[in-house]
Amino acid sequence: QVQLQESGPGLVRPSQTLSLTCTVSGDSITTPSRSWRWIRQSPGKGLEWMATIDSAGYTADSPRLASRASISRDTSKNQFTRQLRSVTPEDAGVYFCVSGGSTWFDDWGQGTQVTVSS
């Protein structure tokens, strides 16, 4: 069974960089045909796809955030990381890391709450 565990700072000040890490167990992030995603849930906006990194390391990011965001991975730790620069209160929410394939989702982490406040 695949397990995903998000970790992050919880509270970030406006204009700072948010960094979130997802640690995966039960599967390798390099398993062929697997995709690894970040999804955010925020009040009034529902679920929003943030970014994807696939087993080959190819990445895709939300066009809305791409200019200040990135997704990367550390295969030695079986982790993938989301960074978001110059955060504002609109970036707050619960961030989930999610496993799946190219067009489907499988397992979700429990989510990590991010608050943006000074």
- Radius of gyration of CA atoms, rounded to a whole number: 13 Å
Largest sheet: 7 strands, mixed
Number of helices: 0
Poorly predicted runs of 5 or more residues: none
Q: How many beta-strand runs?
A: 11
In what range is the share of β-strand residues? over 45%
Distance between the termini: 39 Å
Helix content percent band: under 10%
Overall residue-averaged pLDDT value: 96
Shape: globular
What's the SSE pattern? EEEEEEEEEEE
**Class derived from helix and strand content:** mainly beta
Provide the fold topology:
Blueprint: E1 3-7, E2 11-12, E3 18-25, E4 35-42, E5 46-54, E6 59-61, E7 69-74, E8 79-84, E9 93-100, E10 105-108, E11 112-116
Parallel strand pairs: 2-11
Antiparallel strand pairs: 1-3, 3-8, 4-5, 4-9, 5-6, 7-8, 9-10, 9-11
